[in-house]
Amino acid sequence: MRLETIAKMGVAVATHRSLPEVLRSVVGGLAEHPEVALARVWMTGGAGDQFGLHLAASDGRSRVDDHRWIETAGSFAFMRIGDRKVGRVAEDRTPVLLGMEEGRTSWLRDPHWAEAEGIQCFAGHPLLFRDRVLGVLAVFSRQMLNDAQVRFLQILADQAATAIANANAFEENERLSRQLSVENDALRDRLDENTRWLASGVAHEVNSPLGAIVSSSGLLVQYADRLTKSPERIAEVGRSIERAARRIGDTVQRLSRFAELERCEFRSLSPEASLDSAVAMVDGSLLEGVTFTRSYAGLPAFRGHGRALNQAYLSVLTNALEAVGPGGHIELVTEYDPEWLRIAIVDDGCGLPQEHGDRLFELGFTTKTNRVGRGVGLALARHVVEQHGGSITIERRDDRTHVTLCLPNEGLPTDPLT
To answer: What is each CA distance from 203 to 164, 207, 313, 337, in whole angstroms?
Structure first.
């Protein structure tokens, strides 16, 4: 093997970003050398009994029948750490060079294959990155390797290990980027949905008193002459208009408080006031026939991201309202301890599919019951709470469903969403 060619291979390997490309570049580049019969890379992985070395890349060509050895299945596809020469390289973390001199073939599983292919030596190098064994690079050569070639193979193995680690990191970043994109899309969908619910709720709250104002005003116009002779009737109609106007004013005030929380970025918030504002802004049609009770502990102010937390509250509340339906009951409970602020939304609606466990919080997971809905709300709530250093749990107790949001007391010193 020419040293300058091995050096160029190291540079080429470093340019690849995907793991398959890195591995193909390593074994393919080595197999281009006429004296290399076979080059292979085993990667560590698996769990339990299947943890060990898995053949991930292979290249070489037989001089007997011109067959190209690119398969990764077969009897050499898996071996345990410490087994035979490749497994011992991974276990000892040191390179080995084994030759055929004086008929020494005990290290070969198939001496007849080695003789037919003219194998003169085996070189094995651990793929080490930050003291972690990523795999083993193995070369079967038809010429005995000299010291310089062995050293360059070690350099190539080190470069390959770094390229493998970088490829794994790049693929993980790509996976996280895709996941973040999905979560952002889901968040936007949920925000749009909550906006529709908000608009529907405001319309419901404002239309009713507006109808009362229009009706009462019509009475004043239609029966002005008669009403002037009945001060009591005029006072009654006036009070009706006043009540309707106050109701509109209360709705606008609640909307303003909610909008203020939506606009804020990272600040001191009252968890209980935020929860009440979220309740006030839920779709009015979902609130019909549902009773609320509150058991508040008087939680201290919490430093957090108001907009995101409001979406979390709305998501859990909407999930509970869809579960209870008309005639249902929801209890809002807060508890305080020196470390955590606990906010529980408890409903007496339909039960939970317990067999799904934590999958209820998976983005996109849904069942045929209304409780899990579109598979977005609970996932969004957990995402927001965990970004604030907290946790969210869901359980069924005493024929009621308890969704509990735990937030660290005093909140976070910096914005978790920036």
So the answer is: 58, 6, 21, 39
User: Which structural domain, as residue segments, surrounds residue 380?
Assistant: 265-418
CA–CA gap between residue 230 and residue 409 (Å, rounded): 60
What is the rounded average pLDDT for all residues in the chain? 79
Domain CATH for 412 = 3.30.565.10
**182 inside domain:** no
Predicted confidence at residue 297, as pLDDT, reads 93
CB 391 within 8 A of CB 329: no
How far is it, in rounded angstroms, from Cα 31 to Cα 97?
Answer: 18
C-beta separation of 233 from 250 below 8 A: no
Q: Are residues 15 and 164 in the same domain?
A: yes
Last residue within a domain, chosen from 143, 174, 205: 174
Q: Which of 161-165, 238-242, 369-373 has the lowest mean pLDDT?
A: 369-373
* Final residue belonging to a domain, choices 174, 192, 216: 174
Give the three-state DSSP class for 59: strand
The reply to whether 144 and 285 lie within a common domain is no
DSSP letters spanning 191-215: HHHHHHHHHHHHHHHHHHHHHHHHH
- Per the CB < 8 A criterion, the answer to whether 216 and 240 are in contact is yes
| Cβ contact 347:400 at 8 Å | yes
Instruction: Retrieve residue 389's tokens.
Output: 């250093």
